[in-house]
Every structure is written in structure tokens, then in C-alpha cells.
From TrEMBL:
One of its GO terms (biological process) is carbohydrate metabolic process. This is Metal-independent alpha-mannosidase. SUPFAM superfamilies: Six-hairpin glycosidases (SSF48208). Pfam families: Glyco_hydro_125. It comes from the Bacteria. InterPro entries: 6-hairpin_glycosidase_sf, 6hp_glycosidase-like_sf, GH125.
Length: 427
């Protein structure tokens, strides 16, 4: 079945007429506006209004299609072709977050770091390496097609384990990053590009958040939580596909070290809420308490498989981040939710609203989130990056495919559309 045919069939299953108007544009956004087949069985997926492939964004942009892969050769080809491109990018430079289609030298080549002509940007973010693992693993689980795990994929995951191990002791890392022509922005690591000092914890260091803004303290908790999930997935791939018990053991040993670091350093008593997860820590007693709209976030931990939705520490954390105690939480006339240091004050992100709905177990909250999202699109039937909580006509990024895909995923979840689709095929 073609992707456009899928979209039409699924749309017809949605019982809410207003939601129907959103579904097809959001479901098809990545396919119609950001995807290019560049070789046989190889796809390049840009993020939208920036002509580069982010390892994170490109994975998230096709996530909503995964459940339907068994019914569409077009979806299978896209995901396998994207995975092939992502692996090629990781083998070029696992520290890079965004890549060009060719060795064009486009992007941020005045940055002081080890650039390659294929790189658009070289901000090291843990989640850039987690997302391609997650995408391939979930594709395998849905389709039972292990051919996505190529020999190059195995090299890439070994390289990822190597990198995460090096970054447990960042003082020994070769990675630095400076952007001297924009010294005041949140994209410049202090300390000659090494970032603020950290102590060993067992966790692995990250220079930047998934917002592409710099980490204040180098151990980014939601990204380390994501990494431990990725390492568990690597262990299963190693055992069941590659039959490589040494790789499995490497992955599980690193996972255990990260988990120990999280337990010892990331969980902190916060006022009257009890134990919550900090957003960033440095292993020297400093903690940053906030959450960011971009995923991985603390809000998204159950979605990523890092904790259960009813985990007590998560619930305490959720109470904190969905309150004015979190300085990136904004409330206004049209919406309340999480924004980002990456966008102006009082701007809530559609990604964060979709994620709040996807991680909620409260049907009233889920319904309210759905209505809020559909009432803040500025009449476009598309999602944006951030929008003004007091005037949704003011927004950033009119073309942001990840946000569209995530809202399509929320609609699929909210209306139980995978099950409804499968039933429709039997009738």
C-alpha cells in the first residue's frame, strides 16, 4: 500500500471531523515535503525549513509510520533507506548531529571543531545516536525484517559504544566545539570548547541538548535515560541478529554503569515534591531543574521506554515540569505547556503538547491536549515549533516536519488507529 493511500484509509477511521482535517497533512508532511530518494534503497530526509538531515529529527519524522510498515512496502523502503543513510553519517562522524546530502560543505563550517564537508553541524548530542538505533530496532520488531541490521550498522553501534565510553570521562575526549562568530548564543561551549567541568559518574557526557542549545552541566539526564534504552536494544540485536555475545556484554556493562550514575546523581529531593529527576547534573553537586520541549525530555521518558508511566519519581517529576516551578513552562489565554530556551518566552511547543498527551494516563488531560493543539495551529492544519500562548498567530517555523509527525502519532494513539486500521483490513 502506498503512503498516501494509507493516509486516506486511516483518516476515514477518525470519528472526529476536526481531527480528520489535521491528520492527512500531518501524516504526509515528512513524505511529501522532506523526503528524497537519493540512490536505490537510500533516502535523505531534511528537517523542513533547514536543508539538512538531523539524525534525531529524521528518525522522529518517520516514527508515526512504523506501525503501518507491515502493510506498506513504501514505508519499509523509506525506513530502511533512511537507516542506511543514517549509518553512513554516523560512520563519517559520530559526534555530528546534522548532515548534508553530499560533501557540499554547506552549514556551519566556521565553527571551531573537526568539520567534514558532509557535516552541516557538529554539535555533539547523545540522542543523535540513540534515535537511529531506536528506529531500526522498532522497525525490526514490527516487521521481523532483520535485514536493516547490515554489517555497517554493526560497525556503527560498536563506534557508538566506544564514543559513549570515552565520554564517561570527558576530560579525555577529543571533542571540542566553539562558534566564535556568535559567542553570546547558547551554541558555544565554555572552557575552550570543552564545556563546564564534570566529575566521573558512570553517565556519559553530552555537549548539547536536543534543542541544539548547550548543556550547562554535562550529564544530560533524559539523554542518558534514552542511552540506557538504546544499549538494551543493542544487546538484543547483538544476541539475536549478529550472534555476538561480546557486543551484547559491552552494551549491557555500559548500560549498568549509566544506570548506576543516574540513580546516584540524577535523582534529587525537590522541595515538597519528594524525589524528582534533574534535567542536567555535573557529578559535583550541581543540578539544573527544568525541562525542554525537545525530545528526549523528562516528560518523554515513558514514551522512550526509559520508565513506566506510573513510576513514582517520574510522576513527581511530571508534576514539577508541568508547573510554573519549571521556568520553561508557560501558561496563557490559549495554552499551557512546555517551551524551550531555544524560542522566546511564553512560547509553548506543539511537540511538547503532543508528548504530554502521549505520556498521559488521564483521559481528560488527553482530550484537553487534543483540543488545545487543534486550536493553536493558526488556521494552517500544520504544527509549528513554538507559538505564543496568548496569540497562536505568532509562531516559529511554519515548516517543521517532526512536529507534524508527532501530532499524527498522537492522533493515531488517541483514536487507537492502528487497531482500527487492522480491523478494517479484515472486514
Amino acid at each position: 500500500m502506498k503512503i498516501k493511500e494509507l493516509a486516506k484509509k486511516i483518516t476515514e477511521l477518525i470519528p472526529n471531523e476536526e481531527a480528520q482535517k489535521f491528520f492527512e497533512p500531518c501524516f504526509l508532511s515528512t513524505w511529501e515535503t522532506t523526503t528524497e530518494k537519493i540512490e536505490d534503497y537510500k533516502y535523505f530526509v531534511i528537517t523542513g525549513d533547514i536543508p539538512a538531515l538531523w539524525l534525531r529529527d529524521s528518525s522522529a519524522q518517520v516514527q508515526h509510520l512504523l506501525a503501518f510498515a507491515p502493510y506498506s512496502d513504501e514505508v519499509k523502503e523509506l525506513i530502511k533507506g533512511l537507516s542506511k543513510t543514517q549509518v553512513e553519517c554516523i560512520l563519517i562522524d559520530p559526534y555530528a548531529n546534522a548532515f548534508n546530502k553530499t560533501d557540499s560543505g554547506a552549514g556551519h563550517h566556521t565553527d571551531i571543531t573537526e568539520m567534514h564537508p558532509r557535516l552541516w553541524e557538529r554539535k555533539y548530542e547523545i540522542d543523535s545516536l540513540c534515535y537511529p538505533i531506536r528506529l531500526a530496532y522498532q522497525y525490526w520488531k514490527v516487521t521481523n525484517d532483520s535485514s536493516i541490521f547490515t554489517p555497517d550498522f554493526k560497525v556503527a553501534i560498536n563506534n557508538i559504544i566506544d564514543l559513549w565510553t570515552v565520554e564517561q570521562r570527558h576530560e579525555n575526549s577529543p571533542y571540542t566545539f566553539e562558534r566564535v562568530d556568535r559567542i553570546e548564543e547558547a551554541g558555544v561551549l565554555p572552557n575552550n570548547g570543552k564545556g563546564n567541568p564534570v566529575a566521573y559518574t558512570g553517565m556519559t557526557w553530552s555537549g548539547f541538548r536536543p534543542s541544539d542549545d548547550m548543556c550547562v552541566y554535562g550529564y544530560l539526564v533524559p539523554s542518558n535515560m534514552f542511552a540506557k534504552v538504546s544499549l538494551e536494544q543493542i544487546a538484543k540485536i547483538a544476541e539475536l541478529v549478529y550472534e555476538d555475545l561480546e557486543l551484547k556484554e559491552r552494551a549491557l556493562n555500559l548500560k549498568a554503569e549509566i544506570e548506576k550514575g543516574l540513580a546516584e546523581f540524577a535523582v534529587v529531593d525537590y522541595k515538597d515534591l519528594g524525589s524528582i529527576y534533574a534535567y542536567e547534573v555535573d557529578g559535583m553537586g550541581n543540578h539544573l531543574f527544568l525541562d525542554d520541549a525537545n525530545v528526549p525530555s523528562l516528560l518523554s521518558l515513558p514514551y522512550l521506554g526509559a520508565v513506566a508511566a506510573d513510576d513514582p519519581i517520574y510522576l513527581n517529576t511530571r508534576e514539577f515540569i508541568l508547573s510554573p516551578e519549571n521556568r520553561t513552562y508557560y501558561s496563557g489565554k490559549y495554552a499551557a505547556g512546555i517551551g524551550s530556551d531555544h524560542t522566546p518566552e511564553d512560547y509553548v511547543w506543539h511537540i511538547a503538547l503532543s508528548m504530554q498527551g502521549l505520556t498521559s494516563v488521564d483521559e481528560n488531560e488527553r482530550k484537553e491536549i487534543l483540543e488545545t493543539i487543534m486550536n493553536t495551529d493558526a488556521g494552517t492544519y500544520q504544527m509549528h515549533e513554538g507559538f505564543n500562548v496568548n496569540n497562536p498567530e505568532e509562531f516559529t517555523r511554519p515548516w517543521f516536519a517532526w512536529s507534524n509527525s508527532l501530532f499524527a502519532e498522537y492522533l493515531i494513539d488517541y483514536f487507537n488507529l492502528v487497531e482500527q486500521f487492522e480491523k478494517s483490513l479484515k472486514n
